[in-house]
């Protein structure tokens, strides 16, 4: 998910607008330690004797409406007699350690108290807080918050510190509704609020022992972390649905972890937890039914956890335990190339796949299908990794295929290419069909059931493993798209809420008022909290060990802390084939390093944004190259042009400025692309279009940010297209002037792809771009159904012109889209698609024909990569890159390539042929790369190099690769 685009249209009601439960049970539990507590102001007996009566009427009087008092409004501005009645629905104070509470409040002439109610009876009256069981005085600490607290919670570093009495049984208090108040010298309450508890929960209950279902020889043990719960029970069911309760097991708590044991015969049964816990969303003790967050299997509807042992031989494909030895060879992360693919897209429209396999895991095991044949050919050309969009249990697609609705594809195909009708019919069933990208996680550690032939039982586990094995066996490693930055649901209500039911207010990041942050789409998670980070690390290890996946792509990685990402990398790299059946040193991780929202500029700690990741070996997407190649950004004017789409060379109707302005823009874009071609390295030195020798980090984007940020090439993932935004063919068709031919648009598609394919760093390609894939100009097809996301591995159609894209995300650009879709000359023919497929395969072959395209270190790139058409006299629209190798037995640069001593790559985005002289190339023995010489692209064969003059001629809209062969013995 690229951001700030949010490809979900899902929304949840604000916390203060959620309906309250009609009733809740009265929960009684031993309030351990209270009888032994003493306070400085009065004895416990005195405290209890002044306790207000618990009136149900008073309890229900607490309003859940948002207070009109702003978060920035100083407490002293609140009239003494008008303290908001709903102030306890906020949580503006933080219990950060066992002994300290932080609160942004005026301390002058005030006293402070902590209140607890085990039945959640606290309420605000004109006299202050009532309904408490106990009340404790707090002492203002003039020393403030210590460094360990401000480092963990930098956004509250200027809050006041209040010391908690050391004699309190804090563990028992944390199971209560809690509040803190300040009072004037006359005893009237001036301010009050609830508390956020992640700090103290980490301080007291950080836990590294077993969680989930643990299978032993003669027993199954259940472990769940829920330190604020008052009671936890496990309900064991024989079946995935129905009321046949096998057993109700009361779990026992020790240090925040609840545990229970059962017989081994439970294997194959299902269970849920019933948790009684105070929830700040409703200000009540709630009794919630919830799945195990460490679930490894689920029922079809996702409402029960399957008791499944992943190590069971019945759940392993034949020779599964030997798969680590069958993995395709990977010598270096720099050798990686990535192909992004959605499981359903891959096969649902492939008529060569068995009907029962379509759209699911088993389609990848169909050895003779058109899609698998396509992947096999890409693998043979050099492609190394397939990146699968979310495959965990997500909310937006029902696992039960019998409930899905479908459009009439045959009828839609008869409608005009610019009609509104197709999108109207697709959108009418968009939440009831079988399609969604899946960026709405519920349970991270279970394969999605809708891709399995049977979503109940362990079928999804076996079939997922068969998919990984099948891909590995055709030479492709598997990357999972993981979404740890947010969750689909929260609160005590709803079937899809899990973590927030177990430990309310802990797993999700909250703002200073105590409400959940939603900048990552919804329900942002907080990896800065110990047990959130632990869950992420445990989940990654499960996928790596139990499913033998080869890499992870992190959605909105910038919303996760850098320390979490580094720990994840270290944990994965410690895995070994001997002990774990997985070689962790070959697992690559990368993600979206966007820096925005509440975590921007390290506001919640050092986050995993682009500029914070240098030196970690963790990759991040290089949006600088994307924007320079295509023009503008996904959030700017849709017609803004870039290097390949005609900027200054063949303008469209967008007003970029006069020719001098567009020339400067084009020259700047070329600088950005050159930095990307050199791995987007922070310290790579090149000559800018201004004629200055500068580092990559000294070239700036439009907003003044450095273009380059990486310290090694494996930290850069270069791309021009991904699942987010328009496909490459669509964006080229949108941004180029309408007067050019479809032949020219196809060549520009090739040109953009070649920049990625021949760059240093990790090249990343969106599935279908090599087939001129179109989504009919849909910019956000996450829920646009099979109709707009269709892939055709028969190469008959690229899916252009299947109707106006869905109104919700695209209506603003319909006036631009409509005439393009209506024009039949825009639609590629099969000959164009076949040429694009061949071009892509050839680019992969060229990349893997020489290690010079895959240099492993920043020093090697600085030493060998040069850009020649640069400075103030550059030829607009032409990028010239050379990569030089050393010579065996000659001191200096080491020899890496046995075949080629020198490679020259020219990217010509001009609508005309270009010729220019490069004196530095005189005397070289350059020839067209053998792959291009053997290709069916007749235009590239017109590329010329003259040794005596260093003169080069390149056809229009063409990428040409010249090579210098060492000697004939290596040919």
TrEMBL record:
Residues spanning the membrane: none
Per the record, a Pfam family?
Answer: Pullul_strch_C
Residue span, Alpha-1,6-glucosidases pullulanase-type C-terminal domain: 795-964
UniProt-listed Gene3D superfamilies: Glycosidases, Golgi alpha-mannosidase II, Immunoglobulins, Rab geranylgeranyltransferase alpha-subunit, insert domain
PANTHER family in the cross-refs? GLYCOGEN DEBRANCHING ENZYME
- Where is the Glycoside hydrolase family 13 N-terminal domain positioned along the sequence? 210-295
Q: Where is the Pullulanase N2 domain?
A: 91-203
The residue range of the signal peptide is none
- Entry-linked InterPro entries: GH, Glyco_hydro_13_N, Glyco_hydro_b, Ig-like_fold, Ig_E-set, Pullul_strch, Pullul_strch_C, Pullulanase_N2
Q: A GO biological process this protein is involved in?
A: carbohydrate metabolic process
Give the molecular function GO annotations: pullulanase activity
Query: What family does this belong to?
Result: Belongs to the glycosyl hydrolase 13 family.
The protein depicted here goes by the name Pullulanase 1, chloroplastic
> Organism, per UniProt?
Acorus calamus (Sweet flag)
Top-rank taxon of the source lineage equals: Eukaryota
